[in-house]
Amino acid sequence: MSSTNIASDALMSTLNAGWNTTTEDSTTDNNTLDQNTFMTLLLTQLQNQDPTKPMDSTEYLAQLAQFTNVTELQNLRSTVEDLSSSLQASQTVAASNLVGHLVMVEGKQGYLLSNYTLDGQVELGKAADAVNVKISDSSGQLVRTLNLGAQNAGTIDFSWDGKNSSGTDLAAGLYRFSVETVTDGTTGTATTVLPLPVQSVTVGDAKKATEMTLNVPGLSEGLTLGEIRRIL
C-alpha cells in the first residue's frame, strides 16, 4: 500500500471519529470541535506522509487560521459584552443614587419645591441691554417676570422665590420659563437651564440599544445621564 493511501485511510478514520463525536455530543461547541478536528487532521496528515513526497498542508493551515480568527473574534465579542454589562451596572448604581435629587437640565420647565427657591440659569450667546425671565404656570398664565437687567454674554444665574407678582406663595410643581432679551432695540431669546427632580430610573437594554433614562416630571421620554448639567 502506498504512503498516499495510508495517509488517506488515516484521514478518513480521523474524519469518521470526529463525525461520531459530533453526533454523540450535540452540546459541544461547533467552532471548537471543527478547529480541533482540523488540527487532528493536520497532525495525522503529517504523521502518515511520505517524507520524500510531502503532502501540501497549506490549505489545512489556512483553514485552521480561519477558525483561530473566528475564535479570537468570539472571545473579543464576549469581552466587549462583559465590559458593556459592567458599565451598565455601574451607570445604574450611579443613576439610582440620583433618585430624590434635583438635576439641572437645559429646557423650558423647572420644578418648584415647597418652601424653596428655584435657582436657574440663562445662557446668553451675546451681550444684552435687558434680560427678562418670564415664568408661567401649568395653564400658561404669566405669574412672574424677573428683570435681570443688562448682562454680558455667558451664563447668568437667577433665583425665584416661588412668589407671583403680588407676593403670594405659589404651589409646588412645574413652571414654564422663557427669556426675552433686548439688544439695541431688538428682542431675542435665550436658553434656560432649570432644576427637575429625579423620581425613578428606567434601566436600558444594551442588546436593544436603549439607554438608561431618569424619569422626571414634565418629560415623558425622560433624561439620559449625558443631558444632566449639574446635580444639586
Automatic annotation (TrEMBL):
Q: What's in the keyword line of the UniProt record?
A: Bacterial flagellum biogenesis, Cell projection, Cilium, Flagellum
Provide an example Pfam family for this protein: FlgD_ig
Q: Where is the FlgD/Vpr Ig-like domain?
A: 120-184
Q: Indicate whether Protease appears among the record's keywords.
A: no
Q: List, in alphabetical order, the GO biological process terms annotated in this UniProt record.
A: bacterial-type flagellum organization
InterPro entries named in the record: FlgD, FlgD/Vpr_Ig-like
Sorted alphabetically, which Gene3D superfamilies does this protein's record hold? 2.30.30.910, 2.60.40.4070
Protein origin, superkingdom: Bacteria
Q: Which family is annotated? A: Belongs to the FlgD family.
What is the recorded function of this protein according to its Swiss-Prot or TrEMBL entry?
A: Required for flagellar hook formation. May act as a scaffolding protein.
According to UniProt, the name of this protein is Basal-body rod modification protein FlgD
